[in-house]
Amino acid sequence: MLLGSCASKTSYQLPSNFELIGNSGGFIKIIARAESSGYLVKESGIDYEILGLPYVLESNEQEVLGLNVSIKAIDYGESRITIENNALVNLNIADQKRASSEALKVRQIVKNRSPQRDFNFEFVTPVKNFITSGYGKKRFINGSPRAPHLALDIDGFEGDPVVAPKSGKVVLAEEHFYSGKFMILDHGGGLFTSYSHLSAWAVDLGSEVNAGDLIGSIGSTGRVTGPHLHWVVYLNGNRINPELLVDLESY
Q1: What are the backbone angles phi and psi of residue 188, rounded to the nearest 5°?
Q2: Would you say 28 and 39 are in contact if contact means Cβ atoms under 8 Å apart?
Q3: Parallel, antiparallel, or unpaired: how do β-strands 20-23 and 67-72 relate?
Q4: Residues of CATH 2.70.70.10 domain(s) within the chain?
Q5: N or C: which end of the chain has fewer CB within 10 A?
Q6: CA dihedral 26, 30, 36, 37 (to 10 degrees)
């Protein structure tokens, strides 16, 4: 994470040598521009905005909410898993269409920007347990390369509680092909979190929740090898690294 302390309001011109640098899947924090597009944070009388950065395989420069950012590729390692049920690995046409439709629905939801409920970037850990698979790992399923793991897998037993990391609103709660019992919370300001493989939902679509409220239970629904929480954090449409937001240890 880089604090762009020399950033100025958009009504002023940034210095010609001004450079924003961040890591793949990370975020940057700058002094808020006049027309702030990022997630707004208020600290000691100063307004900042936080911008989520995309995951990249090679270092490059990209525009993020109107700013050019140099994004450094990170080697997050790899993850190899075996799934016995071939129908969950090599999908038939009907399942492919369903999974694609569900993925599109999620992408459309997390592009939205509703009013913020608070003005901090503090998170409660949704499950207090060990990380079993970290963010950004290159994934191989049954030996074949798949999309990178842009989430955090947290261990747990069937039925263990899952709580909201911040105040928000339930904007999706339905069964998905890959994610099983699935939920998305909208925290406002372009910040969303999602929860996959739940055994049950504890709140309904449209419910307002506070940080620490029970929202569901750990399960093994969808495409999984065992019970755990698959937790994703979206900021301005990018899936960022949840390990930067909570204090959890890995196995």
Answers
A1: 85, 160
A2: no
A3: parallel
A4: 78-244
A5: C
A6: -10
Q: CA 23, CA 168: separation in Å to the nearest integer?
A: 27
Name the E strands within 16-143: 20-23, 27-31, 39-43, 46-52, 60-64, 67-72, 78-81, 131-133, 137-141
Alpha-carbon distance of 89 to 146, in angstroms, equals: 10
Report the distance separating Cα 113 and Cα 36, nearest Å: 12
pLDDT tens per residue, range 175-202: 999 999 999 999 999 999 999 999 999 9
**CB environment 201-236: b (16+ within 10 A), e (fewer):** bbbeeebebebeeebbbbbbbbbbeebbbbbbbbbb
Q: Is the pTM of this model over 0.85?
A: yes
Which residue from 171, 176, 165, 162 is spatially nearest to 219, judged by alpha carbons? 162
Please count the CA atoms within 13 angstroms of the CA of 125 that sit on its side-chain side.
Answer: 15
Find the DSSP H helices in the chain.
93-109
pLDDT higher for 248 or 180? 180
Neighbours of 165 (CB within 10 A): 25
Residue 77 token pair: 């390692």
Question: DSSP character for 219?
Answer: B
Amino acid identity for residue 174 in this structure: E
